[in-house]
Amino acid sequence: MMTVDLSFFRSEASQRLRAQARPEGHAEGLAEGRAEGLAVAVIHTLERNGITITAAARERVTSCTEPERILGWLDKSIAASTVDSLFEDPA
Asked: What percent of the chain has pLDDT over 90?
């Protein structure tokens, strides 16, 4: 039977690496969750306003990982008459 040295996982270096990774992973998870929630709100608002959402537009909204951009789309979705108007730059 072969034994494996697991001492690294109990070492100070390992504990320090885990302590650093937790906040980074937590913040990343929060940002992803926020983007997902905002995307759901955009889609919901458009649907409630009777706007047809193409598969391409749905994919664009749900795959976006920038909460600020999605928040802008949410603002636009309130008064949008088409899904394409979300993605238009203000003139």
From this structure: 51
Its domain, for residue 91, covers 34-91
Total tally of structural domains belonging to the chain: 1
| Amino acid at residue number 54 | T
Distance between the two ends of the chain, CA-based, in angstroms? Answer: 72
Closest by alpha carbon to 57, among 73, 72, 37, 36? 73
* Residue 23 maps to a domain: no
Q: Is residue 67 part of a domain?
A: yes
For residue 29, what are the CA distances in angstroms to 39, 41, 50, 52, 70? 15, 18, 32, 30, 17
pTM: 0.68
Instruction: Provide, for the chain, the percentages of residues in helix, strand and coil under a 3-state DSSP scheme, each rounded to the nearest 5.
Output: 75, 0, 25
